[in-house]
Give the backbone structure.
Amino acid sequence: MSSEKEPKIDQDGKMINPHNPEFITKVPWYLGNSGPTLKHHAVQKSDHLLSLTEADSLVQRKIQAQASALSTAPRGFRKGACKNCGATTHKEKDCIERPRSAKTSAWKTGENIAADDVSLRLEDYGKVSYDAKRDQWKGYDTEEYQAVFDKHDRLEAERHKQREEAKEKMREMKLNAKEKKKAEKAEAGEDKDSHSGSDSDSDFASDDEDERGDQDGEDFFERDESARDFQGTMAPQGGIGGNGMRQTVRNLRIREDTPKYLRNLALDSAFYDPKSRAMRANPFPNENPEDLPFAGDNFVRYSGDAVKLAQNQVLCWEMQARGEGIDVISNPSAAELVQREFADKKKKLEETKRAAVLAKYTDGNTNKTLDPRLRLGQTESYLEYSRDGKLLNAPQAVVYRTKYEEDVFANNHTSVWGSFYSRARAAWGYRCCHSCMKNSYCTGIKGREANDSAEVQVIAPARKPLEAVPAGNNAAKKSVLVSRSEVYGESSLGTGSGGLSSDRLQQAMEKNESNKVEDGKRGYNSMQSVDVTLEDMEAYRRKKVKTEDPMANLLDSDELLEYKK
């Protein structure tokens, strides 16, 4: 006995895995008892594969059903149907028909009830093949396109009818002209009997020649029209002809001519539009356009007779606005004559005005030149003066401004920075408060007094003012100025008491020599305060190099100068 279980078979003969649980293979009670199956879990796909022929037949059945539904449309509104069109296969919100008004809707009037929609799902009839899914002609009805053939047939018949009517009318006109010519000959007294045979022959020959000539002229006209359309259109693929983009023949050029875009290869040259082959601006704007072989399309458009034609067009528009029917396109000769008459009248009117002005303000001598002293005094500016000779509404003086902000008062100041200069401090400041600190807050008059007093206190120790001397003292003749040595630490070069000592001067010279800065580096205690004596100042002066001395560059060199007698 084998341990393998035999597979179960459902109603369609399909095998079911025997290891599946019973609650999966058992059908629910509300679907009936059908034995073990798996159909109730998902929609089972049919193994039948729909071909293109079967799909087309199903679509044709749908079309026939739709036609029968249209023929048997209901006559009244049905409950639950669409309120807009009256069909029962969809609701009002899903209706694709044009919304009707409230008075003409289907549920109000009960008229014009639409037929029910016929839906078709090919998947319900089997598995749709790859070709059937992608069939572009699915649902195409050949009878629908018959209306297009009928429309073109009617148009062609109407064209043929009009063509025949035009030919018949032309024959009648020719026949009337011939009869009129014969009547004129008969009135002139010509003998019809002697020339009847020749006249009949010539008449038949002339009829044939006229018909042949008319036919040739008509063919020539048709060929000319087709040639014009053939040149004026270009297909999108690049070929000539067809209903594509229209090209202008004026932009075509001979192959030997230089193209517009090669005349000036600079990056800032005139713009060239490759689509219309137009370069409107001048590629050489700095040169005279009249001397150039090509000065842009606008130069031709705004020069020569083009300007005159535009003036004629504007004049015709103005006359048409006044009710005169003159058009420069339909009747160019009349427009040109009107333009000349208008120019003559305008010229005569200007001469009349000029003569009237000269007669009123001059003595009639138009050749008299203006006094050269009055030429510079002429002006066209309008000025008004009062009775006392004062100028009214005088033009304001032009204030020249710079890019910098002017008259900007910041921090409560009433004057700008730089309006005050302190000679004691050698600095600029504000005039309102005598403050020499930029962007400081203004303190007004009290601040000015405080700044002035502080300035005196700061500068007073640096210099001593002159001492007052009594009037009756003979020592007034004596100078009371502060000595130079007390201010700058200097004294006379004498070697007495209070003068320089030769020993201390020698030591100062050696000290100055040893304290020289090497390689631009300072000593460790170089920044500390040191008392400077008179000997140190003298040693500094002797060792100091004077750049204005022409021999200063030869102090430490061994170069020998040439001796010139």
Remarks:
- The CA atoms of residues 79 and 210 lie 77 Å apart.
- The beta strands are 8-9, 15-16, 49-50, 127-128, 233-234, 245-246, 384-385, 391-392, 420-422, 427-429.
- The mean pLDDT is 76.
- The radius of gyration is 59 Å.
